[in-house]
Structures are given as structure tokens and as C-alpha cells.
Design goal:
Layout: E1 20-31, E2 34-45, E3 49-53, H1 60-67, E4 75-80, E5 83-84, H2 89-98, E6 99-102, H3 114-124, H4 130-143, H5 159-171, E7 177-181, H6 189-204, E8 208-212, H7 216-222, E9 225-230, E10 233-238, H8 240-245, H9 250-259
Parallel strand pairs: 3-8, 3-9, 6-7, 7-8
Antiparallel strand pairs: 1-2, 1-4, 4-5, 9-10
The structure holds adenosine-5'-diphosphate (ADP) and magnesium ion (MG).
């Protein structure tokens, strides 16, 4: 079990709303003839914090990439904040601006400073005036506790710092939902905590979050639901306490015995 969560979580803003943030109905996806996601049904309410777990290759990344249409599904329905994801480019742009995504490998632009990484999309996509975009960027760099790195280039920062820049960069677009795909998997152990702390802070502020992660300490501390995937299906979902202490399926039990 992860030792990375060392503080009490402030739950006062962590209520889950009745409003639906993401609604996925009977969704299927193929890569060519390979059926990668099977009959996915998933409803996420505003303010929910969901951890997606499962073995490598089970379809976790593909599922969250479908939610901001980095991948296209072939059947069923995905509705994000009331917008149905279809081929309509207007809807895709709208959804991308509401859904932030943080990847395992930060994906920062190496030739731009930290500040420029954070202001690029607000200026060019959102048409925010430069000065205002910089103020917002500094606000979020302070939030992730690295304002002093603003004029450096990503290559001059540690992995943990780069990932916090990536989170700040996403927040600069004022997303309503944040997707994380193994945000700490590429980090050295001593840097995992600083990134998890940033994610916990977001959760405490009420952000709707879907996190693919192997950090089960984070799942226990912050998630209100853990979803377990295997072979393209949601096999089981439950509260963290039930999921870890009373797993139902044999596949979940096997997975937990390997990681805990
Ligand atoms: P996970 O994130 O759970 O490890 P992925 O969603 O990345 O799983 O991948 C699920 C399956 O889909 C894997 O078998 C992977 O090899 C396959 N896959 C992922 N992306 C592609 C792609 N672009 N083309 C073909 N197969 C892919
Ligand atoms: Mg993955």
C-alpha cells in the first residue's frame, strides 16, 4: 500500500452533486478488428472522484481518451457535460475545453517556458489577452507550488515539477472535469507525493476527476468509487473500502493480490 498519503483530507467541498458530468451508455470501441472496449456503462456525477484500476492493456487509457475524443467510439453514447460526442467538430472543441487531461509523460512543449506552456492554449484557443492569460497561469503555478519556475524550460525541472506544470497548464483552461492517465507512473518515488498532493488539493476543491492510477493509497484516501477494468470491460465498481476489503470477482482478487 502506498505511503504517499500522509495528511488528513479536508472533505468539506467534496460533496457529489446530483448533476451528471459524464454519461456513457453501452459504449463499444474497436481498434480494427480488436474489440478494445466492451459495453461500457458509466455515469459520473459532478464532484465525483473516480479511480480506474486494472491490468495493463485492459483499456483504461482508451476509455479516458474516448471521454475527450482523443479516441473515437464506434457504438453507444458518450455525453460529457450535456454534450454528446459525435463526429461534430464544434462539440469536440467544446468538450476539449471543458475536460483537462494529464498524461504519464507530461507532454510539455520543451521549447517553451513554463509560463508559455501555460498560456499557449488560453491565448490561441480561448483568445484570452496575453496579460490576463499570464496572470491566470501564475495563479495556477502558485497553486501547484512552483511559481518560481515560471521562466524556466521544462528540461530544467524535475519530473515532479514538470507534472505539476502539466496540471497547472490544464487548469489554465478552467476545465470542469480532469482526466489523469497514470500521472505518477513515470516519476521517481520521492516525486510521487508532490503530484498526489496537487491532485488531492484539486479533489478537496470539488473537481470532478477520473484518475487511472496504481496509487491505491490515493484511491483509498480520495476516491468515492474505484472502477476495475479487465479485457475491455468494467468488471467491478465499488467504494474504496468495499473494493479493497471485499472484492467480488476473482479477477479483482487476483489483481489486488498482485499489487497490494
Ligand atoms: P491500459 O491503459 O489499460 O494499459 P490501453 O487502453 O492502452 O490499456 O490499451 C488497451 C488495448 O488496446 C491494448 O491491448 C493495446 O495494445 C490496444 N491499443 C491501444 N491503443 C491502440 C491503437 N492505437 N491501435 C491498436 N491497438 C491499440
Ligand atoms: Mg494506459
Amino acid at each position: 500500500m502506498s505511503e504517499s498519503i500522509t495528511r488528513e483530507i479536508n472533505r468539506s467541498h467534496m460533496q457529489v452533486s446530483d448533476e451528471i458530468a459524464i454519461d456513457i451508455r453501452n459504449m463499444n470501441k474497436w481498434f480494427g478488428t480488436f474489440h478494445v472496449l466492451r459495453d461500457i456503462d458509466l455515469t459520473v456525477h459532478k464532484g465525483e472522484r473516480i479511480v480506474i484500476a486494472g491490468p495493463s492493456g485492459s483499456g483504461k487509457s482508451t476509455l479516458i481518451r474516448c471521454i475527450n475524443r482523443l479516441e473515437e467510439h464506434q457504438s453507444g453514447q458518450i455525453v460529457v457535460d450535456g454534450i454528446e460526442l459525435t463526429g461534430d467538430i464544434k462539440n469536440i472543441d467544446k468538450v476539449r475545453s471543458e475536460v483537462g487531461m494529464v498524461f504519464q509523460h507530461f507532454n510539455l512543449f520543451p521549447h517553451l517556458t513554463v509560463l508559455e506552456n501555460c498560456t499557449l492554449a488560453p491565448i490561441w484557443v480561448r483568445k484570452v489577452p496575453k496579460r490576463q492569460a499570464e496572470e491566470t497561469a501564475m495563479h495556477f503555478l502558485e497553486k501547484v507550488k512552483i511559481p518560481e519556475q515560471a521562466s524556466k524550460y521544462p528540461g530544467q525541472l524535475s519530473g515532479g515539477q514538470q507534472q505539476r506544470v502539466a496540471i497547472a497548464r490544464s487548469l489554465c483552461m478552467q476545465p470542469r472535469i480532469m482526466l489523469f492517465d497514470e500521472p505518477t507512473s513515470a516519476l521517481d518515488p520521492e516525486m510521487i507525493k508532490e503530484v498526489l498532493d496537487t491532485m488531492i488539493q484539486l479533489a478537496e476543491e470539488g473537481m470532478t476527476m477520473l484518475c487511472v492510477t496504481h496509487e491505491m493509497g490515493f484511491a483509498q484516501a480520495v476516491a468515492n468509487r474505484v472502477i476495475f477494468m479487465d479485457q475491455g470491460q468494467i468488471v467491478e465498481q465499488n467504494t474504496p473500502t468495499e473494493f479493497f476489503n471485499n472484492p467480488k470477482s476473482e479477477r479483482t482478487k487476483l489483481f489486488l493480490s498482485q499489487i497490494l
